From TrEMBL:
Documented EC number(s): 1.1.1.22
Natural source organism: Pseudonocardia kunmingensis
Keyword terms, alphabetized: NAD, Oxidoreductase
Catalysed conversion reaction: UDP-alpha-D-glucose + 2 NAD(+) + H2O = UDP-alpha-D-glucuronate + 2 NADH + 3 H(+)
Pathway: Nucleotide-sugar biosynthesis; UDP-alpha-D-glucuronate biosynthesis; UDP-alpha-D-glucuronate from UDP-alpha-D-glucose: step 1/1
Source lineage: Bacteria, Bacillati, Actinomycetota, Actinomycetes, Pseudonocardiales
Broadest EC class assigned to this enzyme: oxidoreductase
Record-given protein name: UDP-glucose 6-dehydrogenase
């Protein structure tokens, strides 16, 4: 039979996307969360996270009876209508813990709650990004010979998670029990994606290896952009020239104010920690983290230059606060890190971000949050683009020029068309651009 009975523990960004997408593939899915209010909202079809297509997918599959929401892991793993759960996905948070390593408390907690309830023959799948060895540790925590543990990392980008789930570049499934790995891979059969079947440790490693590679790629590009600024080259042409080489590819070559978000910073730090604990140095990844920190200071230096050298008492408008466009996520946002440094230099900051329409206490305290872009530009000595929201391209630049006190835009994402700005009487400063 194709349709499987699946429980998903944790209905956050990964769990909810996984649950709704698996249901859309025809499986019968029960999603659990510990947050009662969230479960209530999800039952009513209210999705709290900004993820294109997800609310529709949740509503559609709930209506079709393939997706339901329950409070707590125990209820999710209990069978329905005499049908036992066959696959249990763990999609719980693994935040950065002590010293940068992933904190596995939530995985441990769920394992303790469900271990006696799992039906014989079911498969427990780790979907959260977890250190190598977690599948093995989960197997020991469950201590059930008749339950297999599988690692099946996710590769979903925020803002395109549904698309990424339904059109994956690859599916990676690892287990020391091969039949269990094959059963999990079969859940995705309809997607027709290349599938890597391996052991649990290798599958766990793939996720860190991929995210750290992406982070290294970005740090390399940011360092190249700095060189281009000094040497008079243009990073857009350099990356295009590099990217045509199919071994390199055009994707993920945009310089910026540094990389952030809830994944790359956490995973680079975790891999360095895990390596150190294993007695292995990982200078490439450590240097990428250091380059990322430096990139923020380089950007702040550019902004200081644009306002005459000193930030003290300068009014600076910021366009963008979220860690990338298309999300409301402020976690580890490079824009906020830059704002913190500007503030420390004595600048007064007003920011506009379409994904963050109001102040978030404790998070956006370095800035005054404006509800429209012209307010951020008003009387500013410079306007700075920190997040690559496409709508910034089509701002009314004549009106922006009229609002600015200093007619300069520092475009930390190389997002805008310099000619459009010049025509509006604004000088444009990019990252690594001629
Ligand atoms: C990242 C990975 O891309 C996903 O494959 C992975 O599944 C996910 O982490 C995860 O571990 O769950 P995400 O954190 O959503 O996804 O964000 P990205 O789109 O990768 O962007 C990360 C950062 O790099 C952002 O700050 C973004 O602005 C920056 N970036 C990205 C650049 O500065 N330049 C680029 O060319 C691309």
């Amino acid at each position: 039979m194709f349709a499987r009975r699946i429980a998903v523990i944790g209905s956050g960004y990964v769990g909810l996307t996984t649950g709704a997408c698996l249901a859309s593939l025809g499986h019968r899915v029960v999603c659990a969360d510990v947050d009662e209010a969230k479960v209530e909202r999800l039952r009513r079809g209210v999705v709290d996270i900004v993820e294109p297509g997800l609310p529709e997918l949740v509503a559609e599959n709930q209506a079709a009876g393939r997706l339901e929401f329950v409070l707590g892991a125990r209820d999710a793993v209990a069978g329905r209508d005499g049908d036992a759960v066959e696959v249990v996905f763990l999609c719980v948070p693994t935040p950065m813990g002590e010293g940068g390593a992933a904190d596995l408390a939530a995985v441990r907690d769920v394992a303790a709650q469900v271990r006696h309830l799992l039906p014989a023959g079911c498969v427990v799948v780790n979907k959260s990004t977890v250190p190598v060895g977690t599948a093995e540790a989960t197997r020991k925590l469950l201590n059930r010979r008749d339950v297999a543990v599988v690692s099946n990392p996710e590769f979903l980008r925020e803002g395109s998670a549904v698309h990424d789930f339904l059109h994956p570049d690859r599916i990676v499934v690892g287990s020391d029990a091969q039949d269990a790995a094959e059963r999990v891979a079969a859940l995705y059969a309809r997607l027709g994606a290349p599938t890597v079947l391996t052991d649990a440790a290798s599958a766990e490693m793939v996720k860190y290896a991929a995210n750290c590679f992406l982070a290294m790629k970005l740090s390399y590009v940011n360092a190249l952009a700095e060189m281009c600024d000094v040497l008079g080259a243009d990073v857009a042409d350099v990356t295009e020239g590099m990217g045509h080489d199919r071994r390199i590819g055009q994707a993920f070559l945009q310089p910026g104010p540094g990389w952030g978000g809830s994944c790359l910073p956490k995973d680079t730090n975790a891999l360095v920690q895990v390596a150190a604990a294993a007695g292995i140095e990982l200078p490439l990844v450590s240097a990428s983290i250091a380059t990322n920190e430096r990139q923020r200071r380089i950007v702040v230096g550019k902004i200081a230059d644009a306002v005459g050298g000193s930030l003290a008492g300068r009014r600076i408008g910021l366009l963008g606060l979220t860690f990338k466009a298309g999300t409301d996520d402020l976690r580890d946002s490079p824009a906020l890190a830059v704002a913190r440094l500007l503030r420390a230099g004595g600048a007064e900051l007003t920011a506009y971000d379409p994904g963050c329409p109001a102040a978030v206490p404790g998070v956006t305290d370095d800035v005054t949050v404006a509800d429209e872009p012209l307010r951020a530009a008003k009387d500013a000595d410079a306007l700075v683009v920190l997040t690559e929201w496409p709508q910034f391209r089509s701002l009314d630049w004549a009106a922006v020029a009229g609002a600015l006190a200093g007619r300069v835009v520092v475009d930390c994402r190389n997002l805008l068309d310099p000619d459009v700005l010049r025509r509006a009487g604004i000088s444009w400063v990019g990252v690594g651009r001629r």
